[in-house]
Every structure is written in C-alpha cells, then in structure tokens.
Write a structure and sequence with these properties.
2 domains; 203 residues; 10 helices; three-stranded antiparallel sheet; Arc Repressor Mutant, subunit A
Length: 203
Amino acid sequence: MRKFERLYRELLLSSLNRISIVRQKDLASKCHLSLGLVNKTVEKLEKAMAVEATRRGVRILSPGRLLNLWAAERNVSGDIWQSFRLDPLSEVEQDLPRDTLITAFSAWSLLAGRRPAEYYRLYFYVTNKESFNFWLSFRKGKIRKTNPNVFALYADNEHLLQSSEKGAVCVPQIYVDTYSVNGPEAPPFLRDILQTYPDLSLW
C-alpha cells in the first residue's frame, strides 16, 4: 500500500467523525508521514476539489470525491502476499488468526450484519507473517494453488492497524478494497456501504 493512502484514510475517517478541518502537522503525525508528503498529497486533492488548504488546516470539501479518487487509485492486487484455495470459505473466515484484519466482502458482512450478495473470495491483511505461516502449516494438506479464493495481503502499516477494529479494517478501506477487487458481487456491496454512509456518496 502506498504511503499517501494513509492520508486518504485519515481524512475520510475525520469526515465520518464530523471533523471538518485537520491540521497538516496532525495528519503527518497520525499517518506517520513527512509534512512534505502530506502537503504534496493535499495539493493533489485540492486540484480534485476534494479538500481545501486553509490557514487553520485542511478542510474536507467532498468526502465522496476523495473516496472515489482513492478507489480509482487503489490496487489490491499489488499488495497480495499469498493466494491459494482453501474450502469451505466460511470456515476459513471464522478460523483466521487473531492478528489478521479482514477487508472487502467479509469485512462489510461482519460490520453490517448482512450480505448484499453472495461472495466466494476472502481478502484480509496479515500483520504478523510468522503467526500466519504457523496457521498455514496446519492446513498444508487442504491448500490448493489453482483457482485461489483466499488472498492474504501484507500490512506493514501502523495507521491501518490503528484505524481498524473488531478484526476488520475501517469502512473507507473496505470500500476502496471492494472497488479494487471488483467482480459481480462488488456493486451490491458498494451500494450498500454508501446507503449506510451517505456522507461518503457523491450524490
């Protein structure tokens, strides 16, 4: 995951928490980024009319614009560390190590308590490779390499961990990851997220 994505995440979380202005120094500190990268990213977001840089800090003008810009730039496939097939998927979901963070379809189903559509792929972030490899070692006989349905992404990202709860990444991350992995099940999930969080919608 690219560093500037932390800033997108933090700004969207601030917006969801009804914080309309955030100081650049605070963004740099929370996201573990240099002030230079924060300012450069804010300048880019200003051109997209998603935020405005003021003397008091960064004002979030359109969370929907920011979310859609991030979704278009997000590349989940570039973060995949391991992929394989392991069935049944429902059991894999329930049996993941504690230090993993689910995202996309599984995460929204957990947080919302419903499934807008059936899905057959599992995406999650691994925060401890050693722990995950230990978990895998007990399932070697069941794992297949063809037609993968389990995708492990490595997350060396403190901000992602800090913004997650209940074993799932935050809502903006769920949205952009779902958008990136795509597939026929993605649109119903994306619509459901925006219906639940209308502040993130463009309309």
